[in-house]
Amino acid sequence: MPSAIPYALFIAAGPALSIPLAVVTSWPSLGRFMMRAGIGALPEEHAPPAELRQRGVPAIEAAAVRAA
After folding, report:
1. To the nearest whole number, what is the mean pLDDT of the chain?
2. Residues 29 and 46 grouped into a single domain
3. Residue 17 near residue 32, CB atoms below 8 Å
4. Is it the case that residue 67 has pLDDT exceeding 70?
5. Burial of 52 by CB count in 10 Å (0-12 exposed, 13-18 middle, 19+ buried)?
6. Could you give the CA distance from residue 33 to residue 26 in angstroms, rounded to a whole number?
7. Which pTM was predicted?
8. Domain count across the chain
9. Taking a C-beta distance cutoff of 8 angstroms, is the pair 60, 52 a contact?
């Protein structure tokens, strides 16, 4: 049925785009850009609770260096 084609495209788009997305997001330059832009950062990386600051979690320390 032709009316099912849009629904099939939604289902097929995920698997079809997963490999190109994995390749693009593996680029180191894109990863550095995403870190600088804060894309994918956890809320605790922007405003860490005292418990995490005391433990010296590497992600928290890296966020502090980027913010400075």
Report:
1. 84
2. no
3. no
4. no
5. middle
6. 12
7. 0.49
8. 2
9. yes
